[in-house]
Amino acid sequence: MNRKKALILGSAVLLVLVVAGAAAWLLVTSGGELTYKTQAALRKAMPAKAADELSVRGVTLQSPLKCQNLPGWTKHSMRVSCTGTTADNKQVKVLGSGEQQSKKNYFTILVDGRPVVENAQCLGTACHKKS
Fold it and tell me: 126: which residues sit within 8 A by CB, 6+ positions away?
């Protein structure tokens, strides 16, 4: 192999490595974004979003949900719990989480101890819009 062919082959290999590296970087960093990026934002949004979700499902709340941070939450692993009562006096519990690593939020709603929503990534009417 002469010098010219070696330079061309080396350049081609280098180009392939750069493209492969860029593609790998995009896969790692393009996991989306959290809807609620902080514990405070998650806690603040949950009462209205959960009430909206329950309304879509025909459940009316007696009063706004009350939310608090769950023990053990961190900047990277957010955890919130909300409680309330339906208009017909059934207990409501809403659990919300956010993971910085996976960049996903998850929500579960229990009414009278039974799951109405399980591990949904979105709450409210915006999640139910028809395409």
Answer: none
